[in-house]
Specification:
This protein is an all-alpha fold. The protein has 14 helices and two strands. The protein has helices at 10-29, 32-56, 60-65, 80-87, 96-127, 133-142, 148-161, 182-205, 210-218, 223-234, 236-251, 255-260, 270-280, 285-314, and strands at 163-165, 168-171. It has a two-stranded antiparallel ribbon with strand order 1-2. Helix 5 packs parallel to helix 8 (182-205), helix 8 packs antiparallel against helix 11 and helix 13 (270-280) packs antiparallel against helix 14 (285-314). The longest helix is centred in the middle third of the chain and has 32 residues, at 96-127. The radius of gyration is 26 Å and the shape is flat. The relative contact order is 0.12. The model is unreliable at 10-15 and 317-321 (pLDDT under 50).
């Protein structure tokens, strides 16, 4: 009597090996050693920031003569650094309060505009059939590889001289002054953000169930109604993920704001003023540390409030089903 050993197909064997390898990797990442290493890395990464926070509350004579770790042996606490850097009247103070408002005025529209335009474009490219749709999507995707710096001069020329064709002025120069220059910064950040925003949101929207869309059309829903009542609630994670990226990018931007808004008090953001403080008054450590945390507080709040959507949005469209 002979017995035969059942054999698995090659594909099943490969799948079994892959799942086994993935299981081993997952097990290693969930081990105590990996957890301990993650904690150590997080602590080492956080210590400099914690030291900066402690220094921002120390008196000037203490911060310039001793290290921040001596605070625990001789704790001296003051809010004068923040008072001076936000509302100080001297030329050497930060006077960051007005620049803080400028950063908000630049950042919020620069996030909302690309989100609105990109979500509409992504829906159209995913669910509306029209000639050349794929080529339009490829062109938008290809724009991501264009360096931002290459577009600064043409865009600045567009604002300053307008658009002419054959001697005919198609669009006059903008000729904006003071607070009106915010519009130039909004326009620039929206243009630079749209390719990635469309790509990210398209990947998410295209994976929505086709049966859901067909059922809505059978019920008589138009594209605007489908987008407003079905698509928008389902793409919240992707919107939040891009919103975090765009907010952090615009809030920390120096180059675009400096070129299109200028360095005046009326339009310059926090980053411009912080660069001036670091460049011309680098020895005022107590003001620099306080100014750094003034600039950190808003993006940190935005990230912490939207972090539950962050990973879900990054994985949008990466897998099917």
């Amino acid at each position: 009597m002979t017995t035969t050993t059942p054999t698995l197909p090659a594909g099943a064997q490969a799948t079994g090996k892959t799942s086994t390898a993935a299981g081993r990797v997952r097990k290693r990442l969930n081990s105590r050693t990996a957890t301990l290493a993650s904690i150590v890395i997080a602590v080492l990464w956080t210590i400099p920031t914690f030291g900066l926070l402690v220094s921002s509350f120390r008196p000037e004579n203490q911060i310039k003569t001793t290290g921040w770790w001596t605070f625990f042996g001789d704790p001296q606490f003051t809010l004068e650094n923040y008072q001076e850097v936000l509302f100080g009247r001297s030329s050497s103070s930060g006077q960051l309060a007005s620049y803080f408002i400028n950063s908000l005025a630049i950042t919020i529209p620069s996030v909302l505009f690309p989100l609105a335009f990109a979500s509409l474009a992504a829906y159209a490219l995913a669910w509306i059939n029209f000639r050349g749709r794929d080529w339009v999507y490829i062109a938008i995707f290809a724009l991501q590889i264009v360096p931002l710096q290459m577009a600064l001069v043409p865009l600045l020329r567009f604002f300053s001289t307008g658009v002419s064709l054959g001697g005919v002025t198609l669009m006059p120069a903008w000729d904006l002054v003071d607070e009106q220059k915010f519009a130039q910064v909004w326009f620039a950040h929206t243009c630079f953000a749209l390719p990635f925003a469309v790509f990210l949101l398209h990947n998410f929207i295209s994976q929505l169930p086709k049966d859901l869309m067909e059922a809505a059309r059978v019920d008589g829903a138009t594209h605007p109604k489908i987008f407003r009542t079905i698509v928008l609630p389902l793409i919240t994670p992707a919107i939040a993920a891009f919103g975090i990226f765009q907010f952090l990018w615009v809030w920390n931007d120096l180059l675009v704001a400096l070129i299109f808004a200028g360095g005046g008090n009326e339009t310059a953001p926090l980053t411009v003023r912080l660069a001036e403080m670091a460049g011309s008054r680098g020895n005022e450590w107590q003001r620099l540390t306080a100014g750094a945390f003034v600039s950190i507080v808003v993006p940190l709040t935005v990230f912490l409030s939207l972090q539950r959507y962050f990973v879900r949005g990054l994985l949008a469209g990466s897998v099917k089903g």
